[in-house]
Structures are given as C-alpha cells and as structure tokens.
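Bug #77: duplicate submission created two jobs. Keeping one. Sequence:
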Amino acid sequence: MKFFFSNQILDTDTRELSRENMPVSLEPQVFDLVVHLMENRDRVVSKEELIEKIWKGRHVAESTLTSRINAARKAVGDSGSAQAMIRTVARKGFRFVGTVQTGARGATPAEPAMPRRDETPAPMVPLGDRPAIAVLPFMNMSGDRAQEYFSDGISEDIIAALSKLRWFFVIARNSSFAYKGRCVHINEMARELGVRYVVEGSVRRSGERVRISAQLNDVSTGSHLWAERYDRDIADVFAVQDEITEAIVAAIEPHLYAAESFRAQQKPPGSLDAWDLVMRALSHYWRVTRQDNTVAQALLEKAIEIDPHYGKALGLLATSRIFGAHMGWANMAGVMADATREAHAAVEADSEDAWAHLGLGYSYLFARRFDDSIAEFELALRLNPNFALSQAFYAVTLCYAGHYREGDVAIRRALRLSPRDPLAGIYSGVGAYIQFAARRYDEAIQFARESLRQRSDFVGAHRVLTAAAGMSGDRELAAIALQGLQQVQPNISLAWIARELPMKQAEDREHYLEGLRRAGLQ
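Kept job's structure:
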C-alpha cells in the first residue's frame, strides 16, 4: 500500500518514505508508528494502543514515546508547534490529520504531486542523523545475460546486510536498481538518491571461477575509501554469494565509521550533533588506550545530553565503561551501576540496535550472569550477523563460561569477518585467552604476539602472554612478558585477577592464576 500526502509517499511494501523523490531517513519503530497513525487517521490513537502495537506491550517510558512522536513529525515535515500532520489530543493520544490519498503499488495520486524523472533533479536533502549509502547494481561482465541473477543477487544481499548495521540509512533495492543499465554519473546518482556513500562493483564469471570486484566511494569528497577483489570457485553458487556478501559488508563497516569520524573532526566543536559526537567517540574507543577511553566516554556523555534516548550512544558508553575496567583502568565495582543503567536504557530506547545488546551483554558478563550475557550477544548477532566486535565479546564470554570450543569457533569467525578492523588486534588477544584456557600454550603465545604486534599496549594480550609463558615453562619469555604487563597495568596482581575477571569455573581461575604465578606475578 502507498500513502500519498503533501509532497511525500509512504510505501508500506518497500518500507520507504520519500519526499519529492528523495528518501527520508526513518527508524523501523518510527516508520511503524507513522503507518499505524495513517491507517487509523479517522480517529484518535491512544498512547496505550501505540505501545501495544509498536512495542508489543513492553514497558516504555513516557520520554521514549515522546521522542518517537517527535521523530515521526520530523520525518513527515511536521513539528510539535505546527502539528499540521500529527496532532496531539490532550489526555487522549495522537491523530494523523494530514490529507492522505491511498493506492496500490505502482499507483500514482489523483493529483500528481511528484516531479517527473526528466525534470532538473532536486539538490541532496538531509537524511536525519544517519548518513546514507546506496548499493548500485553490480555489473555483469560475463557477457552472458543468463548470469545476471548472480550479479543482482550479490547487490541485493549487500543491501540487506548493510541495512542491519542501522547506523546508516541504506537506500532500498527498488530505488538503487532504477539505475541498472543506465549511463549516469555516480555523482548524479548520489544526488538523486540523497546519499554520501556509494558501493559499486562488477562480477565476471568464467567457467567454474568467478571474480567479484567491489569498492566504496565517498561521493562528497570524490575519494575511494576501500576496494577489494575476490576470486572464488563457484561449485556452490549460493554459498559463494553468501561468503562474498559477508566479506564485503564486514570490510565496509569500519571504513564508513572512519570516514564519518574524519568528517566530524573537521567540524567546529560548537556545531557537533549527537551523531558527530558518537563518531568521534568511536574513533577514540578503537585506539584502546586509557586516555582515549576516557575521551570517548566524555564525548558519549555529551551526545546523550543532546539526545537522552540515543540508543547507540548509550550502548557504546556502557561498553566503554566496562571495557575500561576490564583493562584495569578503572574499578569494576565503581562503573557497574552506571554501565548497567546505560545498557538497559540503550535497549529500551532501541531494542533492535545491536550495540545496545552488546552493552547489556557485557554488563551481564561482569555481573556473572553468564546465560543472560550469552543470550544478549546472540541477539546482537541475530540483529547484525556481521558485527565482529559483538562476535569477539561473545567468544570471550563463552570462554569465561567454560565453553572453550564454542568460543574458539566464535573468535575465528570474528577474525575472518573483519581482518582489517581497527579492533582486530583485540580479537587476536581474545583468541590468545581462549587457546590458553584450552591448554594450548604455544597457540596462545602465537595469538598474543599477533595481538601485541597490532596493539603493543593491549593489556589483555600482555596478561595472556605472561600466563602462557609461565605455563609453558619458558622462563625467559615469562620474565619479559611480566615486565611488559606491569608497564601497561601497574596495578596488576593475583588478587586483582581473582577478583575482577569473571570466570565461572574455579579451575579456570586457578589455571590462569597459576600461569601468572609461575611467571613471577604476586
């Protein structure tokens, strides 16, 4: 069904809202809220009904509902003062009061309100607090139109997978595929679609081999942010399609964040909005130092001052607090109350955001609620299967709970998902601990050294390297490793390990303590 109102179209089939042929950013809950108000525009919809329909009856704070109504008004070109589209009826609820026409897909309104395709395109419109990205149809270079399904399938799968990031507004398939077979400059496409980033690529299949090339472009600067080529045997065409999609999406995500962080760095401090502050915070969080972690938290607190219900900021802040204590930079008992409160607030604000569930899963881990922690990480990974950081935290949680084999599978997936991730060194450190817990000391040392090659001051890798060297009997390495550990974590002690690290099995804790004890730690 399509709803035509003012100069806008809301399509419930494609879940798109557009204004003058330009997409408008809309979070899923806000989209559902607008649709429900439109479908019931002949009456006042109560707050209780909205909570039942949109939040499935879960407890929702008054401020959360208010923020979603404000977001809905902004999306349809309304405001709380004008209330030309969505009107608040005191003590009753809300009603959509704009003039609306309806039609099936492909229909047009009785009075055409949208400009024709051949008219001069409108300038790019702002897309709310999320930058937008379009995935253009990958070119079939095989010379065989029968292979078109494969190149189209790659593009469609990338669109679907990128949509799960939710930090970026991804143009729907029907809009980006309108350019298939057309000779249009990438800048013109970007302007018409209202996007900053464009993914494009090609597929060349020859016999039982396929070569897929992809690149990520920042159209606003004219730069290529990332490019890669993949050569594969195509014995199982759909397995190859899934593998390539996963690889491309996992590679793109860190580059998008890095580009947004750089953009935020160029803005004057007084003009930063909540999104800019989160992007700056993320760049500091990735550096994995005590000072940067503190800076990240300060930026996230500013973002939350601007938007108290910003689920992404709340989830990352909770994660940052606990990570700092996990590294020994803060007292865990001192941060748990704030981190747990922020993690719950993140999930309440946006229950479909993987970062929110990451923060809650991490807080449950250090509350020794292992089953709840594992469940939250699994939910985060269902929401975004390509979320390498959540995959790594899931791995270490499984290991702390005594599930070494499952943890090993999870961390190897994280490393495969995102080998160029700014946090790949951390993932290797997690891998080192899992190998140590499984009594594979040589492999633990190898993983720890790789972690420290990428992040020389990563505390976790220093701890595992010291314990593994102690258990392996390599006294020289143990002495060197202990010295390095004490430099990056001066407060380290056997008592700290026993008190702070959440190991479910007493024998796992004693095993770790024994390795450190043999290396000379007291």
